[in-house]
Amino acid sequence: xxxxxxxxxxxxxxxxxxxxxxxxxxxxxxxxxxxxxxxxxxxxxxxxxxxxxxxxxxxxxxxxxxxxxxxxxxxxxxxxxxxxxxxxxxxxxxxxxxxxxxxxxxxxxxxxxxxxxxxxxxxxxxxxxxxxxxxxxxxxxxxxxxxxxxxxxxxxxxxxxxxxxxxxxxxxxxxxxxxxxxxxxxxxxxxxxxxxxxxxxxxxxxxxxxxxxxxxxxxxxxxxxxxxxxxxxxxxxxxxxxxxxxxxxxxxxxxxxxxxxxxxxxxxxxxxxxxxxxxxxxxxxxxxxxxxxxxxxxxxxxxxxxxxxxxxxxxxxxxxxxxx
Length: 324
Prior knowledge:
This protein has one helix at 11-21; strands at residues 22-30, 40-43, 48-53, 58-63, 68-73, 79-85, 90-95, 100-105, 110-116, 124-127, 132-137, 140-145, 150-156, 164-166, 172-177, 182-187, 192-198, 203-211, 216-223, 225-231, 237-242, 247-253, 258-263, 267-275, 278-286, 293-297, 302-307, 315-322.
């Protein structure tokens, strides 16, 4: 078993390092948004940020050029996952309580499709090779044809899927299944489970990211608060590192060999990948309690962090830029 590597940073070091690694560049208010905020996605061409305001039962559209909310779609039922497909100019929104995926297009957004029967619809990913959208729901992954918004089938899992990642150079998908304490491996060509990596010494594996070039899969757990690195060729764990608490989003910055861990504790941990088997936390950014979801946009060198409303403070999106 690998030892848990604990890295602590003094407060003054944390504050000074934040100026050199991730810098707060902008704060965008989300007036009248209450409750938990879930996932985000980006329309790069039109510079629109889509925000799933789960607790508010709305989708918030942020105009990044004007740094303000430009549109709201109300009346949703616990929107959790958002996925924007630039090729089709379509936005997929997974409604957990609504048990469906809504599909929108245009500006302002208008409905062009809907897929029902997906209880607790959650995370979504797009497979550019097949042109299919995968949606985590219930205890399965659903396959939806992006072009005509048709449900093609599903793949059964041992529990509810959280974050998952898709290989572009192979047929596999890696799926976090916290209730089963495992990472489930799927062959999407066969549409079946082909294996699992069991988390013997960790639990609550929600967030996930993939470094496909180096064959490394990163998984953040909450019990304990740790980052796990797996060799995707062998399935062996190669590293384990202490991170901030209540991690819900995880992103790999291939250009800088960094991993951004967004935590509800009110922190973002920045982990440096020295090489595929060795990692170290070299920076920690303060955000706000409950800010547990975000989005890293490599084309914009920006990390967007969703901050929920607390007390008299309104909800907001904080935009952090990579400075080196």
